[in-house]
Amino acid sequence: MNLANSQLAAKKIRLLVLDVDGVLTDGSIYYGNSGDELKAFNIQDGLGIKLLQGAGIEVAIITGRSSTLLSRRSDELGIQRLIQGREDKLTALHELLADEAYTLDEIAYMGDDLPDLAAIRRVGLGMTVANASTTVAEHALWQARRDGGRGAVREAAEFILQAQGKLEQAIAPFL
Fold it and tell me: From CA 72, how far away is CA 132, in angstroms rounded?
């Protein structure tokens, strides 16, 4: 990971695409006695997403699993581009971009495991979490210090905003 190259790539980002399990969550899946699936989302990650959106950077989600609770979380965060149930993340990414005016250089993709690898390698800023698979970490341009579901997305958001000179403005309303 080369910080200077990561910062140069981050300056161009207009869209951050996120995986869910292992990135927005810690990768654990809980099942209740009634068969309900439960996941925990980090509030700091959610605020990081809001900071990006407030700075004009869009956020999308591509995930291999499908759940109504993810649809709810996406709605809460104002994420309109959500693709669920897709293991082929690169194909899903191209489908997501079919009607968009983004180039791959303007996209950051954050994933943690092998299904994310092709997308991480193709975008302008491939990002991963601290506890990513070794192979993914080797191919990502930037790696968070925090684990997935534990603030890694917030860290990525602040990295992108800092590289673009937008972080101070983004946090100013909280001061």
Answer: 26
pLDDT at site 99: 82
Structural domain includes residue 77: yes
Q: Which residues of 24-37 are buried (b: 16+ CB within 10 A; e: fewer)?
A: bbbbeeeeeeeeee
Q: Read off the DSSP letter of residue 27.
A: S
As given in the structure block, the two tokens for residue 41 are: 């989302």
Give me Rg for the CA atoms of the chain.
15
- Domain presence at residue 175: no
Q: Is residue 174 part of a domain?
A: no
- Residue 14: domain span: 3-169
Count of domains observed in the chain? 1
CATH number of 72's domain: 3.40.50.1000
Mean pLDDT by 10 residues, the chain (175 residues): 85 98 93 87 97 98 92 96 95 91 95 97 98 97 98 98 97 93
Say which residues have a Cβ less than 8 Å from residue 159's Cβ, sequence separation at least 6.
6, 10, 142
CA separation for the pair 152, 110 (Å, rounded) = 9
- Can you spell out the DSSP letters for 117-161? HHHHHHSSEEEE-TT--HHHHHH-SEE-SSPTTTTHHHHHHHHHH
Does a structural domain hold residue 62?
Answer: yes
User: What pLDDT is stored for residue 70 in this prediction?
Assistant: 93
